[in-house]
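Consider the following input, taken from an annotated entry for DNA-directed RNA polymerase III subunit RPC9 (Echinops telfairi).
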Amino acid sequence: MEVKDANSALLSNYEVFQLLTDLKEQRKESGKNKHSSGQQNLNTITYETLKYISKTPCRHQSPEIVREFLTAMKSHNLTKAEKLKLLNHRPMTAVEIQLIVEESEERLTEEQIEALLHTDTSILPADPEPEPEPEGTAASAMEQEGPA
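Applying the prediction step yields:
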């Protein structure tokens, strides 16, 4: 078997999140439960993937945001994979950009990196602030005790 075009079907985290959420809803509506071991494995993979991906910035994205982001990225000389990584990870610093964009030192100037950061942070929604832990948790109890 030969791969004709390896980059023809890249999916963003948002697209995977939407696909799995829709699949989960369809299974709920149809009433199908864990009948076979294959179905049980699929349910486990779906659950674990949704659990992980719901903690990433993609949860707060929409098709319009993704479209606007990709339109804004056309002016930058980046590969499909690099645009996808920027979309999925929403870098906040120049160091993160340098880790995502291959050979960024040769390909991008500092101004271009700043422009990428500005585009990324202005279009893509940020994660909401993490909720404070309830008073009764072990972490808050340790904070109250102070250093040993």
